[in-house]
Amino acid sequence: MPDASPFTAKMHQETSLPPEADEPVPVHRSGIHLRPDNSRVLLRPFLPGGEERAREIIGRILASSKTDMAGGLRNVIKQFSHDHLDVGTLFTKRCAELRHLLPPGTELSPMQSLVIGAYFTSEYSLQSAALFNPSIVPHPSQESVPPGALRFVMSLRATGEGHISSIEFREGIISADGTIAYDPVSRSVTTPSIKYPRKRKDDLVATLGDLEFDRHFIDAAFSSLDDEFSMGDLTEILRHPEHWGCAVGKSPFECEHEQKSVIDAILWAAQGDYLVEFSGSLALSERVVFPATPSEKGGIEDARFVLFHEDDGGHRYYATYTAFDGTNILPQLIETENFLRFRLRPLHGPAARDKGMALFPRKIGGKYVMLGRQGGVNVSIMFSDSIHRWSEHETLLEPREPWEYIQMGNCGSPLETEAGWLVLTHGVGAVRNYCIGAVLLDLDDPRKVIGRLRNPLLEPLEHERDGYVPNVVYSCGSVIHNGWLVLPYAVSDYATTNAVIRL
Q1: Are 324 and 227 in contact (CB under 8 A)?
Q2: Tens digits of per-residue pLDDT, 227-238?
Q3: How far apart are CA 87 and CA 79, in angstroms?
């Protein structure tokens, strides 16, 4: 019998895949879809027209009568309390964030605080446009799971107004035959509190080096910074760039320009390293990781979660994702043990500069291993002593079949089987048609390709071709359970469904 342990993903079969496979692999589509839903909304800060206009709005609110204020507040609470937990606390907190905009000496009543907070808060429909690009991992708790079944966590890219993407979660059960059943989804959605942990000076200096700032200038500018520092420590140094000196051979104008560039780069990178924490009382579907930093203001895209096995027998979850600020992308890493507390931070190094990175679920030969797509065409592989820094890469797979002539990439982290590392890939062919393929890599040396499907494992069916981005099937991660490959996938960047494939 296959090992049904929640943290085992081994393929129990006596023969491996043939090196070249021409026959189509039987795929069983579930027919169950997770679709966009306008009712999934969260409350987020709203600042129309900048701070000067905000002061005018606050002035109007403070000049209104208590009767008008109380009536308006009563209506707002009545309208929005059914979709949001403790809406009054959220409004009060929002008002506290705007205290610097109040007229000098103003003391607010509790009612005034609530009203001001309400005017500077808006609802955001998280998944009004799309719910797609899923990844799936075993749930951290396997208590009360039926025999032969596996409880899972699925991450999803939710996209709403302005094409801003965030990470949502679902959970449920995979039965012994690979069938997925989802738990009910809560209407309420909550964003977490955000904290900034202490940071390492070496990481900061390395990031600025990657951005090609002069190393001697950087060392001089941050000589007074401790090996580990807080955001407050960093902010104090950034207030006094006149103490940094100037790179050799540069004019005062060039020096001032470089100082400003360094400040912008530091804030961009340092604010990307943060913690989010949810209350344990929230259902998993109520937790949303929403863009929180300047590097993410355009969205959090394509999280690829993996259950990582440590050398000491422990485990934790990692996810690579792409932070987008509207112009630039920044590969980042999420770390969590329980899907309640997450640490998000940038990936460093010359090889960490493109989309679609996917971490192997354990070290190989004492090193972390990652798939990537440097250059946007080929699948690459890289090795590192540090999970946060990736310096070199080498090409692993190049387009070979007509359905992948335009480009290739991975569809999530490799899956360990007795026959080798099973890697799902995506290929782009004529008319920008996306298909999913499969590759088998050597367990001890994943640079060696054992087998590669000539035909797609999964391609869009006729009813899957229409959507936000037509003609696409795509996944950010699968799981193996009881001899089945459970493959959740997006349909034309619009909705999510899944297929099961016998290994």
Answers
A1: no
A2: 999 988 988 888
A3: 10
Q: At what angle do helices 110-119 and 50-63 cross, to 10 degrees?
A: 140
What DSSP string describes 242-287?
GGS---TT--HHHHHHHHHHHHHHHHHHHTTSEEEE--TTS-GGGB
- What pLDDT, in 10s, does the model give residues 154-168? 999 999 999 999 999
> What is d(CA 163, CA 53) in angstroms, rounded to the nearest whole number?
26
Instruction: Kindly report the pTM of this predicted structure.
Output: 0.89
The sign one gets for the Cα dihedral 257, 324, 128, 430 is positive
Secondary structure (DSSP) of 66-114: HHHHHHHHHHHHHHHTTTSTTHHHHHHHHHHTTGGGSPTT----HHHHH
Q: How far apart are CA 372 and CA 122, in angstroms?
A: 37
How far is 120 from 90, CA to CA, in rounded Å?
A: 11
Q: How far is CA 406 from CA 170, 214, 400, 431, 473, in A?
A: 33, 38, 10, 10, 15
If one counts every other C-beta atom within 10 angstroms of the C-beta of residue 388, the result is 18
**pLDDT tens-digit readout, 69-128:** 999 999 999 988 877 878 889 999 999 999 999 999 999 999 999 999 999 999 999 999
For residue 403, give the DSSP letter: G
d(CA 277, CA 335): 12
What's the pLDDT tens digit per position in 408-456? 999 999 999 999 999 999 999 999 999 999 999 999 999 999 999 999 9
CA distance 173 to 426: 26
d(CA 244, CA 216): 11
Q: Is the dihedral of CA 9, 15, 16, 20 positive or negative?
A: negative
